[in-house]
Specification:
Two copies of one chain form a homodimer. By secondary structure, the first copy, chain A, is α/β, with parallel strands linked by helices. Chain A folds into three domains: about 55 residues, Orthogonal Bundle (434 Repressor (Amino-terminal Domain)), CATH 1.10.260; about 110 residues, Response regulator (Rossmann fold); about 150 residues, Rossmann fold, CATH 3.40.50. The first copy, chain A, has 13 helices and twelve strands. A six-stranded parallel β-sheet of chain A has the order 2-1-3-4-5-11, with helices on both faces. A four-stranded parallel β-sheet of chain A has the order 7-6-8-9. The longest helix of chain A is centred in the first third of the chain and has 16 residues. At the A-B interface, helix 4, helix 5, strand 2, helix 6 and helix 7 of A face helix 4, helix 5, strand 2, helix 6 and helix 7 of B. Chain A binds a DNA duplex through helix 2 and helix 4.
Chain lengths: ~350, ~350
DNA sequence: TTGTACGCGTTATCAT
DNA sequence: ATGATAACGCGTACAA
């Protein structure tokens, strides 16, 4: 009461105690009115407290609540990046779903650095989140896998939940989309369209879900039973640039005889297109291209890119559900191919060069 | 020591106390070793503590640290969305810079709902962050502006910092990029290229920075002094769809005589292109298009889109710097036009229709 | 250098 | 229904 509104240096934030005193009630009562769930407070008191809170501009100190309660209505999301259209869509979907369940999301980014993942889990564990969601990268042969598992187990032991998205490499609840099956179906459809000689652009970084896409595609092509199936798999750097550079560095003859490039992500497919164009190939007239993910960016790409669609909203919804209440073990969200103009039927296509 | 590793239900997380006891030292000593900055602890003790911590899998309870310290090495970022390529790039840049300063970033999304902004500030204030960074939307005539300002002031009074990005509508530290000047220069260059009859797609939502882009562009065109300058400004919904739909709904005659569409964001420019193509116009043969932001997506767009580039990294760096130590009041990061193939010189262009 | 004691803002337990 | 009082996990004077 003694300090004026003037700029008297950083003041202490308004606490529940201040509110209680201002309202002439005890601190627990104020707590019950403002934050507690059981509302057994007389109307007259209730009003005085809410008024005081508004007047003083009270905001509950979240940290204090977490400490006192022991839980935190927060989920921690560990994701490889956020500028990438795919991951940002994933993050957005998760935040949307989380908000619907009145959950805060704290995002941590690994930037594809393997060891960061372990550090982040350790750090996030300190936030006492309801759950830790690991989305994105999942290495085929996790370098610090044991430690990561140990850390996550500790988190589970203290009541936290661990949810994996698109990576079944660790022994925790997993929400997967069917990378293998999606790629397999895509290959099947493309084979039907007449494609035979394909370059598959995989990932130099050994990511499990990406490997599944490669394998699914190769299997789909093989299963088609068509004659002359010829699928070459390469593993450039896992990025737009990596795909483009690989195309740029290709042998001219090899490029010439190719009918189709399938990249394991749309991002790489777009990089491949950039490379192909730089080498004077027209799409789809000279060569067809297909990707995976069905990112939003595709709406602005010409020609429309054939890809595999993943229902990110469904994934996010399931992930948040799992984060709140444990379910079975692995659930799979379907992924299905969408054929667009970048892969027309081969028969109707001019044979060039 | 008495409990086994077995699944005996959710255990209590390991606390500093546990570590201290396990190491046979006092709790403050453990604190000094693991978290404190002054390292006046005997080497023998130090080792015992770190060993115990590792063995037990100790992680500091962040909430408790925040409470005890009163500060939090966290900045809160309030942003309109995260799936949008522009905002996700902004968020990514800020996270990158923050990490370099050993700061956590907690992201909150408004989804363009006006009132959310106020709610979020209130809520985030409870996290006791070092700073609150408001990026993105800034309304010309803020609906709940006074309350927002009051809330932010309270935050500042308690030692927090407020940093605005690209919106000088509120009386706080601001990192702006020169929307007006960038758009003005763009218009000047386009006028030089021979463009006269332009449709400007602004925003139905009254966003200050967007208004500046419109005004800058209009001014730039007018200042060119060229004959026949004819600039029409429209305000469709502020989105890809809004821009596309506006084009789709345009009068045929009006569309016919246009030479150029300038949209205040690349996102809208791409929507406009979609609309123009749906109406059978080729770009840039029939009509030219320019945007603003220079989002990453543009690398995959054909023809390459003329736009205004903003150095987001510089913006983010400045914002984080301000978040840590107050500076002047407003600093401006330059924005400069990049002419690409979507706006060729008019003289070299076929006059169609 | 190390330990004791207390405070941070909140919720929860228990009398009243 | 309300108010003392004790946690929660950690940092930090202060004393030893």
């Amino acid at each position: 009461m003694s300090d004026t509104q003037s700029d008297a240096g950083p003041r202490r934030p308004v606490t529940l105690d201040d509110v209680a005193r201002h309202a002439g009630v005890s601190q627990p009562t104020a707590s019950r009115v403002l934050n507690g769930s059981d509302r057994k407070v007389a109307e007259s008191y209730r009003k005085r407290v809410t008024d005081a809170a508004r007047e003083l501009g009270y905001t509950p100190n979240l940290a204090a609540q977490v400490i006192a309660r022991g839980s935190s209505r927060t989920v921690a999301l560990i994701i490889s990046g956020i500028s990438d259209p795919y991951f940002s869509a994933m993050a957005a979907a998760i935040m949307r779903q989380a908000e619907a369940s009145d959950l805060r999301v704290s995002i941590a980014v690994t930037d594809r650095r393997v060891d960061r993942e372990l550090d982040l889990v350790r750090e996030l564990r300190g936030q006492q989140p309801q759950a830790i969601i690991l989305a994105g990268t999942g290495y085929v042969d996790p370098p610090s896998g044991d430690q990561l598992v140990a850390e996550l187990h500790r988190f589970e032991e203290t009541g936290g939940r661990v949810v994996l998205i698109s990576r079944s490499d660790l022994p925790f609840e997993t929400v997967a989309f069917d990378n293998h099956e999606g790629a397999r179906q895509l290959a099947a459809e493309l084979a039907t369209l007449g494609y035979r000689r394909t370059l598959v652009l995989g990932s130099a970084t050994p990511l499990l879900s990406m490997q599944q896409r490669v394998e699914g595609f190769v299997a789909g092509m093989a299963e088609s039973g068509a004659d002359g199936i010829d699928t070459v798999v390469r593993h450039p750097e896992f990025s737009w640039e990596g795909a483009r550079d690989h195309i740029l560095g290709m042998d001219d003859d090899e490029l010439q005889r190719l009918q189709l490039v399938f990249a394991i992500t749309d991002d790489m497919a777009l990089g491949a297109i950039a490379g192909l164009r730089a080498r004077g190939r027209r799409i789809p007239d000279d060569i067809a291209v297909a990707g995976f993910d069905d990112i939003t960016t595709l709406r602005d790409v010409v020609p429309p890119l054939t890809t595999v669609h993943v229902a990110l909203d469904a994934v996010a919804k399931e992930a948040i559900k799992r984060a709140l209440t444990p379910d079975g073990h692995v659930s799979t969200v379907p992924a299905y191919p969408i054929i667009r103009a970048s892969t027309p039927a081969v028969s109707t296509r001019q044979v060039v060069g």
